[in-house]
Amino acid sequence: MQSFDWPVRVYYEDTDSGGVVYHANYLKFMERARTEWLRQLGFEQNVLKDEYNCLFAVHSMQINFRRPARFNDALLIRSEMTQTSGASMQFEQSVLRDDELLCSASVRVACLDAKRFKPCPIPFFILTEMQCEC
Fold first, then answer.
1. Annotated catalytic residue: which of 16, 50, 73, 99?
2. Considering only CA atoms, which of 22, 29, 127 is closest in space to residue 85?
3. What band does 1 get if pLDDT is binned at 50, 70 and 90?
4. Is 73 annotated in the active site?
5. pTM of this prediction?
6. What's the total number of domains in the chain?
């Protein structure tokens, strides 16, 4: 449906004692890319929470590590929204160095009522913007 690319530079703090990106930091890179995708659509997460009682949270993820990223690498985080259904969105995300695939993940994100932390439908005005970008 939709794709968004976000550049990331690997800092020393992102690496482990072996000089490669620590596995949990790939999740941070992907989270930031999804946040920037929402921002590019015109949605700030604090505004969604405070004014529309809406939060997005990762429900599930399957991740595959293929090649290591290293200190000072310029990476591209590609996020493709592949499905929306009621209260959730499915993303396919990739971490690339040049055109080399380093890591990929399938991520399901749930829309939650910010006060009750229960699933709720993705607001129509958000879905409309998502569809316009497709």
1. 16
2. 127
3. low
4. no
5. 0.91
6. 1
